[in-house]
Amino acid sequence: MLAIAAAVVFGLGLLLDLINTRIGGITGTTFLLLGLLLLALHQAGVGTAGVRSGGGGGNWRRRR
């Protein structure tokens, strides 16, 4: 989810940079840094689902 948010932020930053504008003092570089922060959080595992316990490595059938 954070990677998708980073992609949106990078897109907004690119758009602001291409049209050379600011939104309330926020420039394209600000969006670039925010996107990098979101990607770093994504790579660190923040916001990912936890591992379910009791799994058998994907084997859902019991062997006798």
Task: Give a structural overview.
The chain is mostly helical. The chain has a domain of 43 residues. The protein is 55% helix and 0% strand. The chain has 2 helices and no strands. The chain starts with a helix and ends in a 20-residue tail after the last helix. Keywords: Membrane, Transmembrane, Transmembrane helix.
Helix and strand element order: HH
* Measured distance between first and last alpha carbons: 40 Å
> How many strand elements?
0
Radius of gyration: 19 Å
Overall residue-averaged pLDDT value: 81
Relative strand content:
under 5%
**DSSP helical segment count:** 2
How would a textbook summarize the main sheet?
none
Tell the overall outline: rod-shaped
Regions with little confidence, pLDDT below 50 for 5+ residues: none
The proportion of residues forming helix, as a percent range, comes to: 40-55%
SS content category:
mainly alpha
